[in-house]
Amino acid sequence: MSSADFLVQEKIWFDKPRYDEAERCFYERMNGSSQPIQDVGANTILQDIARARENIQKSLAGLKTTLCNRGSGQPSASQQSQLSSSVGADQTELIARIKSLELENQCLHKVVDGLSAALSKLECRVTVLEKSAVAVTPAPTPSVRYTNGTSVQQKSSAPVKEDEEQEEEEDDDDIDLFGSDDDEEAEKLKEERLKAYAEKKAKKPSIIAKSSILLDVKPWDDETDMGKLEECVRSVQADGLLWGMSKLVPVGYGIKKLQIACVVEDDKVGTDMLEEEITKFEDYVQSVDVAAFNKI
């Protein structure tokens, strides 16, 4: 296929520049331009366009006349009623839609007002809570660090100490230490009060600090008798030591460790003593670690 045949099948407007020039000249002529039209082809195109416009105008005018003749010059009463009813229906539909939109707008305004009021109340409550939280900030509890690396937060005993100090101050107020030395009755009364105070202090129970400890006892290998190991651990006895529940926890490669709990009195038993006593059973115990330490 040659290039000419190929271009014949393409829908290309080769005469577009000529038509553009003719349209430009037509509009210049319409605007009263005095420039002469030299292109004859453009003249013919303009004449064709003018004829086409005239034909269109004539056809439209003929259509109007035929319609008027068919309707005898004026629309009938039924047509007028239909037109008026259609216009009235459109107006009523438009009014109904406007009313529905107004109602919806009012509802939306109410919802927005309610949300804004709730938001303002919530902001007020948040500010009050923030102020109260800032006003009541608890003091940080001191932490105690043990030799095995575990750190435990010690419970604050300030209220107990304050109560004891208040009781001691009240008891001290009952004792008159500034009586006259010459008065023997005052001396006897003072001695009696001192004895009563000493007896009261002796009868006051002392607070015993206790802790709950969770120990991890690791064996040497998977052939270690874990029942015998637990018997060895529980054989460690001391004043202020109470053994609790125990279980076997898998570590890996078939090896299990013994996890056992105990309750100790802080003044009598410590973690170092427990580790030393348990590691004495060298045939069964490889190491002892403190898994958890909590004050009671």
Describe the structure.
There is one protein chain. This protein is 56% helix and 17% strand. The longest helix has 59 residues. A four-stranded antiparallel beta sheet has the order 4-5-3-6, covered by helices on one side. Strands 1-2 form a two-stranded antiparallel ribbon. A hairpin with a 5-residue loop joins strand 1 and strand 2. The relative contact order is 0.07. The protein is α+β, with helices and mostly antiparallel strands and 296 residues long. About 6% of the residues have low confidence.
Features:
elongated; 6 strands; 296 residues; alpha+beta; two-stranded antiparallel sheet; four-stranded antiparallel beta sheet
